[in-house]
Q: What sequence folds into this?
């Protein structure tokens, strides 16, 4: 059985972009919480070249049911050609926190 909840990882090129993505996600009630982790240093392959850069990591708490809509929103608003969008299942969490996620998102009402 697939876990009901997920944490989604998205990186952004700046704090301004990260805040825009976070606000849009929350206003659409596609997540209960978005944490911004600044000063992330990323090293990666892009178009055959080894690259690196400073990024902001978004940790988005949501449900699996909302992942398709959340992904569409991120892809629509994100400036990268290929933005990171990785959903990790939440295997366990405190009942009060998980209930709060349900109460805060679109399907929780």
A:
């Amino acid at each position: 059985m697939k876990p009901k909840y997920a944490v989604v990882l998205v990186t952004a090129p700046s704090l301004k972009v990260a805040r825009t993505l976070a606000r849009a996600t929350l206003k659409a009630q596609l997540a209960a919480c978005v944490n911004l982790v600044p000063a992330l240093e990323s090293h990666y392959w892009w178009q055959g070249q080894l690259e690196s850069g400073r990024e902001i990591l978004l940790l988005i708490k949501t449900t699996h049911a909302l992942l398709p809509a959340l992904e569409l929103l991120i892809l629509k608003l994100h400036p990268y050609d290929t933005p990171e969008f990785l959903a990790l299942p939440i295997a366990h969490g405190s009942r009060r926190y998980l209930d709060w996620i349900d109460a805060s998102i679109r399907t929780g009402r």
Residues 1 and 36 are 30 Å apart (CA to CA). The mean pLDDT is 95. The longest helix spans residues 15-27.
